[in-house]
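hey so i finally got around to running both of the ones u sent me last week. sorry it took forever, my laptop kept dying halfway thru and i had to restart like 3 times lol. anyway pasting them below in the order u listed, first the sequence line then the structure token line for each. didnt double check formatting much so if smth looks off just lmk and ill redo it

first one:
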Amino acid sequence: MGGLEVRELECFLVLAEELHFGRTGERLYLSQSRVSQLLRALESRIGARLVERTSRRVRLTPLGEQFLARARPAYEELRAAVADTTAAARGVRGLLRLGFQGSANDQLMAAIARFGERWPGCTTEVVEIPLADPFGPLYRQEVDAAVVLLPVDEPDLVLGPIFSRQQQTLAVSVRHPFASRASVVAEDLADCALIGIKEPAPAYWREFQAPAHTPAGAPVPPGPLVSTLQEGLTLAAAGRGAMLLCQPTAEHHRRAALAYLPVTGLPESSLGLVWRREHETPAIRAFAEALGEIAARADRAHRAVPRRLVEPAPA
């Protein structure tokens, strides 16, 4: 293949899905500059541009579209061959214990189904983990991998596929002054007590889920602290405070006593699969691959309405 590097091809295929250098780097655990280098190397090898990059968008050239149509099936077949042979050599079997926070959303369940079809010799066990202890079950070896709310900044944890990037949702009592609104903005949080999360969750993680200040710096009144999601929803329904949720959790835990309002102006809420670096197994890697495929498919569906990247052109 003229010295073609598989990493160059992987980079192009992921970029063709994301149309975003930052998200491509996240999925491949690369910097944006490295993504640009790999793409330039592939384009130099081929002798033509595959991707158009401007200050406002990224899109495939006509030649890039043609290359994608032929390269993706070939790559998927090659990857399947490697995965099947690896499984035969190492064995993806036994029990894989998966933790989740809030709700086991559709993408997670679809990944479990795909993993089960691909590796029937490995059984999955799904366990809810405490809201206030996102990483403890991993350290106590109660689960092998866990789907948790981001961010994750633990040096000995591996962050795998990131998915379900969505606008945050504010749960308030139907008696709350905000309840009649269609949405709220981040600065409105200065006018309501925000339910927080207890330790042992790390401080940086608790701050993201219940910020102490609005983006403009206004203080957010602290509400009660909770250990579980159900405690938080119950207190919100009782009017003791408002609670920020990721959208899948909000959709799964609908209550007549609560109103759910999208919040603009806050960073998106995201979920990620994490596991301990020292306890990584073929089964964990295989599940991460299945979840990554499902997440990429969901992202493509979410972006089905024509939309182009807005980001600075890579150097």
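and the second one:
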Amino acid sequence: MGPTNFRVIVVGGGPVGLSCAHALSQAGIDFIVLEQRSSFVIDAGSNLILVPMSMRVLGQLGLLEELKKVSSPLGIINRMDHSGGRLGSMKWFLYDNEYFGAYPRVISRHDLTKVLYQSLPTDTMPNLLPNKKVSDISTTTNGVSITCTDGTSYEGSVVIGADGAHSFVRERMRQLAIDNESPLLNEEKPFLTTYRCLWTRFPTTNGLTPGTTWETHGEKLATQLFAGVDTVVMCIYERLDEPTYDRCRYSKADEEALVGRWGHLPLTPGQTLTIRDAYKSSIQSGLVNLEEGVVKHWSWDGRIVLAGDAAHKFTPSTGAGFNNGIIDVVALVNELVKELQAAHAEPLGLAAESGKAQVMAAFKAYEASRKEPVIEGCRAAGNATALATWPNWILKFIDRYIFSMHVVQKFLSNQQASRTARAPAFDFLDSEEELVGTVPWIMPPKRKSVKSE
């Protein structure tokens, strides 16, 4: 496809980084992925939600059927308050199926990353490098050079930072802007934390069937419970006394203190399962701050670009963060392919200094296409978490009485559907539309070529 001397270095081998590897592989673009963990299959972390816009493009990559085997569809969201009183049900997931032909699905990080990793072409496996913690990134005449803490170094044309909310790539990008006295300078701490989250995974028991979803809403704290085939994930969102831009690391004692404060609250009706019950039977758990925000500048000098949580961070209550990271990959790789196709006839292609303008154009087009939907998605996620934690009587009233009305849910879902329908698909892959509902996608995939008999 493109010039053979164009090489992408992906920093971060989580779900977004591995999705990037799939996209680059199918685009015929040379790449390596550097992951600081010892394995690309992640054993820790809360579950994720796959929604139609990301399921659609994962289907283009040939991954959807395998992902369906290790995930559970989600239906009605049941809600109650801290005393166990019913708050009505939410039909968001049912409307997703109506509009786009698929229910959202809950999947563990382990199963997601296992499918993403093991389904990569065999000949790309040497390009996936674990135990590679990046210590430096510098720009060169023809691209970038990356050094790792183990002393190894790697050369490439561009770097994609898919290394999460506390991205080293983003930090290095900021330092390069400072060193070059550039006005394209990101804030040192771009994300604000208003909530922290205790997540816990425990065996699917207590009569919970796969796909069951319960939420508990109330002042200062809300919970979500998603039941999978083998395990259930509980997420507790606690509003901080004061928002902060500072990073915080929590201990097991901090987890236990939070459970001590809120352990009596129900996760299911009739006190059949409480926060304390779930935590006592947990297989894994963790307490983390939930950063929110959108980074101002997503790229640097045609050499470095950010994707996923490195560029934007959502509260996870709507499940939008990971899914928007997948759409970042779609938009970014589409733009790179477009520029590589245009540069195909050039002797040096995009890897040389003379081709940097085209890469910069690709990065700018990518950011321009993603910025508005990401800002809107981040705002919606934050609003959903605020509604559930009742910071004032107005939001409490709306959550308790207005959002329980299915006519209101239908109206808001219709609005969201028009935004979802604009999500891009890979425009360089021949594929059929796998998800079809009552709302047509604005950007249909490239149709498979039909061979004549």
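quick thing i noticed on the 2nd:
The two ends are 27 Å apart (CA to CA).
anyway thats it, ttyl
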